[in-house]
Every structure is written in C-alpha cells, then in structure tokens.
Amino acid sequence: MSSRISVVKCNGYEPLAVEQAVRSTINLLGGITCFIKPGSRVLVKPNLLMSKGPEYAITTHPQVVSAVIHILKEINCKIVVGDGPSAWGQQAEKVDEVYEVTGIKKVACDEGVKLVNFDKRRMRDKFPLTYWLDECDYLVSLPKFKTHELTLITGAIKNLFGLVSGTYKTELHKNYFKPSEFAKVLVDIYQEARPALTIIDGILAMEGDGPGSSGKPRQLNLLLGGSDCVALDTVMAKIMGIKNQEVLTTKEAALRGLGEKELNRIEVAGEDVDKLNIPPFILPQALGIVNFPTALSFILQRFVKYFPFSLRLKCTRCGHCVNICPKKCITLKKKGIIFNYKQCIACFCCQESCPAAAIGVKKSMLAKLIGL
Question: Which of 15, 16, 31, 75 is the one with CA 20 to 30 A from 251?
C-alpha cells in the first residue's frame, strides 16, 4: 500500500463526540506528531464558502475546527485560522461576516487563536496565494464533504482554492473555465501548497447542486483523514458512488505523481468503506453525463450543454452573482437578474455564490431528450 488514510464514524456535532472522532481519525494514522512538529506555526484552513450557518452543510463545522485546535495546542503549536471565501468577489470586507455567521469567529475567540484574512499574498507562477503560507510551517486543511457543479466533488484538493487571494479567483475561473483546465489549476495549487494533514468533515455532507445553497444536506456521519489529498478524494468519490468517470483533479494530480488514486493501493484505517452500504449521492445536474461510458461521455460533451438561470421567486436581488461572475454577463434588473448567454461560460460561480438558492440549471434540448 502506498497511501494510508482513515475513515471514522461520528453521529453528530456534539463537542465531545466530535473531538473523540477527530482524535481517532488522527491516531489511526500514527498521531498528530507524525504530521506536525511540536511548537511549530500552523495555518488551519476550513472551507468557508459563504456566510451561512453550519446547518446548511456548506461550510466546515466549527466543532471540527475546535477539535483540531485542541489537538494542536497539546503539542504547543502557534495556530492561526483563516480562509479566502470565494463567494464575495471583490467584496473582501465580507470575510468578517463569513467568519461570524459560520461560527468560526466564536471558535477562534473561545480558543484564543488568531483569525486571519487572506488579503496579503505572494505570486506563485499562475496565481497569488496567501502570504500566511510563508508565515507558517504547516498547513492543516479541513474541507467539507460536498458535490460541486464544476469539479464534481469539493474535497481535499478543491479546498485549497481558498488559498488564492482576493479577486484573482474570478480571474482563474474566467481564464480556465473548462472543467479539465480548471482541474489543472487546482492541482497546480495543490502542488504549490500541500497540506501536512487534511481532515474532511463529512458528518453532515452535501449532495446535488453543491457546493453552495443549491445543494442538499445529507447526514453521512463520517470523518476522513490523511496527508495524501489524492487518496482522500479517491475514497470520497467511492463513498459518493462515483464509478464510471474519475474526478478530474484526482486524475491530474495522480498523473503528476502527487498522490495515489488506485483504490487497491490505498490502505483505509478505521471503517471498512465497502461495508458502509451508503446509497449513491445525487450528483450535480450540470454533470449529468458523468455516469455515461467514457467514450460516449466525450462525444456528448460537445452537444449537451448546461447554463444557469434565475429562479425569480427566490431571488432577493442581493447582487452576489453579479459581483462574482467572471465574464460580467449578469445584470441586475428591477425584477431580478438577466443572463447574457452569448458570454456565459457556464462556470456556475453565480450558483455557488447565491445565498438564496435562486439560480437553477438550464439544460440544452439534447440533454432533455436523453433524460439528463
């Protein structure tokens, strides 16, 4: 076996139960000092997409963050907690609101750790990453177990997109809008900033049109842990029931030798994934061809199209979709929002950022005819 990860059951977010489960997740892998040197500086990065409470399954639950902080404190680490929420576009001041509503601000206050913004950055090849990577010795990543309209899953590798500073996330979506191209960018980030330890919060997971408010919470009661993000995402995809097409980020990272994607070469400590009997996750509508055979899927991609559209009865006219749109093809009108489909690249950033779940998926005629 070339990679080892752990899978542990946890039936809810009761503080003591979560801390015990997080400890088990780490101890099954040899303990925290196998990943983090005592007395070091550690950046803890949860997934904090938008200012929604943890009950929506959009963000990493604060109890998971708190448990990780407790364990790092026991080896005298200097801890900072932060993320660069992607939902706010150019409105960086909204980060404080995200920290407040998601419960992370309270955790930082209660634990006496520093909560930081990713406003300062250093350019790394194609993208700027937060300078806190330079200020810390280790990165501990705490993703949320979710589906994703563009990348199929948002797990260990995708969580690192939050390290990109400020509005440059929008530039990357605009310049690399095809799923295959965007996957390569995400792997570029992983190659540049590999976490020492990753723990995926799958106690309350998300399926459907994730990763934002259009997705549906699903009780899964699992934590996943390890240092190999490729192996973690591989097992995560298996749990979701994704079979006939590999997750693009996983495939790309494995090609670069950044981790293990072959299930028979991944040792899973803790729960036996094959015996969990988890029904397949509902996948995003815009990825309806994912379960077709690879050759047919490749052909269908040329003709089967998906685009965002406004669910006007839900729209609150908040303008988040307008601010986040990489192509600036959304206009806010008195009755709601209007899309310029000639410019739309179907990146679904608008749906991801919408706090009211007011953006749906519009299918091309062929997609409708073949039942996608």
Answer: 31
259 and 295 share a domain? no
- Please tell me the distance from the alpha carbon of residue 351 to that of residue 311, in angstroms, as a whole number: 11
CATH number of the domain at 153, please: 3.40.50
Say if residue 170 is in the same domain as residue 316: no
- Global pTM reads 0.92
Q: Is residue 280 part of a domain?
A: no
CA distance linking residue 41 with residue 269, whole number of Å: 28
CA distance 350 to 342: 16
Q: How many CB atoms lie within 10 A of CB 252?
A: 23
pLDDT at position 368 is 54
Residues 6 or more apart from 81 whose CB is under 8 A from it?
43, 44, 45, 46, 65, 69, 104, 107, 108, 113, 114, 115, 116
CB contact set of 210 (below 8 Å; sequence gap of 6+): 146, 147, 148, 149, 154, 284
Q: What is the pLDDT of residues 176-191, one digit of tens each?
A: 988 899 999 999 999 9
Residue 201 pairs in a beta bridge with: 144, 223
* Alpha-carbon distance values, 81 to 6, 122, 235, 276 (Å): 23, 18, 26, 33
* Residues 225 and 3: beta-carbon distance below 8 Å: no
Q: Which residues are paired to 115 by β-bridges?
A: 81
Same domain, 256 and 300: no
Both 259 and 323 in one domain: the answer is no
Do 265 and 323 sit in the same domain of this protein? no
Query: How many residues does this entry show for the chain?
Result: 372
pLDDT in tens, 126-154: 899 999 999 999 999 999 999 999 999 99
